[in-house]
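Have a close read of this protein, sequence plus structure tokens, and explain what the tokens say about the fold. Thanks in advance:
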Amino acid sequence: MKRILIILAISLSTTLAPMLAQEVENITISQLKERVAAGADTLYVINFWATWCHPCVEELPIFESDEVQQLGSNLKVLLVSLDFKSQKEKQLLPFLSKRQIKPEVVLLDERNPNEWIDKIDATWSGAIPATVVYHQKKKAFHEGEMDVPSLLELISNVQ
């Protein structure tokens, strides 16, 4: 009986392994900006969102849409979570696992929004969702929800 339980446990763990959440790195705005600057040929689509923001959660699928993914291998979608660091294990990681979020997710490690919001865009009020697209020193910013056509238009503004 013990052997059967052990085999069952091993089988379940290998079956469920793909459903585990991705690793989520804590990142500062400076680190984010450095990463973008280092990827000169990369088209970055960076979305600021949180698990507790209903409009943010509703728009997440657009970043995995076929239309966006077909833009090429130099496209990098980065979802920057504004969830509280204390909620990473209890809220963020289970959310990512349950929803099987594929784009890379990082957790913003900043305390005072007034110190970093303007570093993203001077017109940003701080409301989320918000999306910024970077490509070869060009930038396009959008505050609020988007759909696939509006995201594609935002991307076209930097290409």
The beta strands are 25-27, 43-49, 75-81, 104-108, 130-135, 138-143. The radius of gyration is 18 Å.
